[in-house]
Amino acid sequence: MRVIVLLGLVITASSAAADVPASGQWRGTIRVPGQDIGVVVNLEPAGGNDWHGSLTAPSLNLKGAPLSKISVARAHVTFALDGALGPSPDGLASFEGSLLGSTSMQGTFTQGGHSAPFSLARVGGAQVDRPRSSTGVDAALVGTWRGDYEMGGYPRHVTLGFQNRAGGPASVEFLVVGKLPHTLAVDLVAEEEGLLRVESHAFQLDFEGRLDPAGDTLRGVIEQGPEEAPIVLHRTTGSAP
């Protein structure tokens, strides 16, 4: 079974920060049956009771995944990883732990009705990866694009539709049809120097590619977890919804 990880940690309140500091970079493992999963957690105060946080777990294909619901109450810590490991009927993956002095944190990781112990050691100052912001897209991308890719021996059909909105990021239709059709919730659409990226955290499925100079072909890759597959999308008639 693939382990999906979202951490919930509870850390020192501001008045106790000098005795049990929560802010910093924490490295360690989640000890699931048959393997240890390495994780790096960064936690940083954001003023008042708010915190910034991110999580990296290379074996889970997570790099700088944003943390949410970070709560600090003395030496007890909780936070969550919003959808980066895919949907679960039991809610977000979470960690609940305790700080042991200023350099160690231990507790229980829970996801999908299963739990495993974790331990982290503080190794330095926080280096929180801030999430990217969505943007509009080049006018040449506005419209509907369709293409096919194969992953795990199964063909899939993709529809990507883009429409710019005044004063805000582009709206996106992201439809994948395999055995069943899935309309994916889009967490990020961003274009920078001609490189387009669309991310759906709940499905762990992303697209990254560039528009050909002729303007009628969008070439790139579909990423799902650690797997990648090439895809070529062609403009269709009409415009994105």
What is shown here, in short?
Helices cover 0% and strands 59% of the residues.
CATH class of the largest domain: Mainly Beta
What is the multimeric organization of the chains shown? single chain
- Cα shape: elongated
Straight-line distance between termini: 37 Å
Counted up, domains total 2
CATH superfamily of the largest domain: Quinohemoprotein amine dehydrogenase alpha subunit, domain 2
Q: In percent terms, what proportion of residues is strand?
A: over 45%
**Do you know the CATH topology of the largest domain?**
Lipocalin
CATH architecture of the largest domain: Beta Barrel
Count of strand segments: 17
- Mean pLDDT across all residues, rounded? 85
Radius of gyration, Cα only, in angstroms? 20 Å
| Strand arrangement across the biggest beta sheet | 12-11-10-9-17-16-15-14-13
Largest sheet geometry:
9 strands, antiparallel
What percentage of residues falls in helices of 4 or more residues? under 10%
Summing up helix and strand content along with how strands pair, one would put the structural category as mainly beta
Q: What is the string of SSEs from the N terminus onward?
A: EEEEEEEEEEEEEEEEE
Total helical elements: 0
Low-confidence stretches: 1-20
